[in-house]
Amino acid sequence: xxxxxxxxxxxxxxxxxxxxxxxxxxxxxxxxxxxxxxxxxxxxxxxxxxxxxxxxxxxxxxxxxxxxxxxxxxxxxxxxxxxxxxxxxxxxxxxxxxxxxxxxxxxxxxxxxxxxxxxxxxxxxxxxxxxxxxxxxxxxxxxxxxxxxxxxxxxxxxxxxxxxxxxxxxxxxxxxxxxxxxxxxxxxxxxxxxxxxxxxxxxxxxxxxxxxxxxxxxxxxxxxxxxxxxxxxxxxxxxxxxxxxxxxxxxxxxxxxxxxxxxxxxxxxxxxxxxxxxxxxxxxxxxxxxxxxxxxxxxxxxxxxxxxxxxxxxxxxxxxxxxxxxxxxxxxxxxxxxxxxxxxxxxxxxxxxxxxxxxxxxxxxxxxxxxxxxxxxxxxxxxxxxxxxxxxxxxxxxxxxxxxxxxxxxxxxxxxxxxxxxxxxxxxx
Length: 429
Ligand code: AMP
Ligand code: GLY
Fold this sequence. Notes:
binds adenosine monophosphate, 429 residues, 3 domains, D-amino Acid Aminotransferase, Chain A, domain 1, Dna Ligase, domain 1, five-stranded parallel β-sheet, alpha+beta, 23 strands, Rossmann fold, binds glycine
């Protein structure tokens, strides 16, 4: 069969790599892909922000299955448009994707279905937001309602900062366009955990858990990024806590969406805070996480395509998942300046040497291939990944491979997985 993957980052490289391993797949196409993805898939150009261009690619390629990587095509209604055309696609409809694309929608949904989450207020004007602020203790979290590429969440230590954040979000000063709604949230503390579940609209089946490292700096300092690394271990979430999250959060969300006649088909990313009072939802995403996916998929032994197809066909409960025991880690190499401005076009050396470290896969996030050579083409450039019997082993392989790679301005965190190594596993019940 022929599979089309939409997107062009590290997550999509990992998806194409895993899809290609399926014995049933004869061709993988990626739109738009990137320099590294070209080694596992045929890349075709597309404007991911343009629904008609996405449909043009889908109609000319006529894949047997399409897998949507990023959130924007979901928000544009790509899945709805493909379903109308009778084309098989893995991902939620535009309405179901509102669990990610509108934080106000997600919070109200969680309240309706008693899914644990921080206390909140959805505010439709600056004045209402200023008044609602009085109900919250400090620090307080101020969030843009809509998609903000990781820039829409502000943790405010004092009232002045919160008022400023509210003003900046409503005026468009912060994100470039004015928000219609702003969400104010109680500040939660604890360890964060990403639990991704596949859903066929009725059943939720968890993937192995992961933890992301969102800040640019070691020790979790500095501004938020798209993710500087992730890891997954067998011990980060014990069976009892895993069951609790599945029952009280993931399956409840899937049931709630079905009951509201917006069934959720695809991958539901539950971004959790493991608080002293139990797990609470920080956010839902309607897609695979990046870089969590790069850490999760190398642990999957069973066929990813079988699982994705089972979601589309509503028979996920019959599907068997097999995972390699142990751990995995993905460390991101970024361009100097990221998440702010950065230069591109830098020559990347040492990729072949890095790939020779046993068990290592180098997923490309932002690269281009020019005259047979890879150059940087984004803020996040590479995701160096390895699995191992233990987290220490996986990290050892990753950092050995990373040491063989170089490009001008290359930055990466040397402390990925530090919480687990310090014995601070997020999900012990
Ligand atoms: P979100 O996009 O909603 O997941 O927020 C991005 C990041 O902001 C999360 O990964 C957390 O680190 C932090 N965050 C979001 N909401 C809260 C909250 N209510 N309390 C504490 N931290 C939060
Ligand atoms: N790793 C965070 C995200 O994918 O949104």
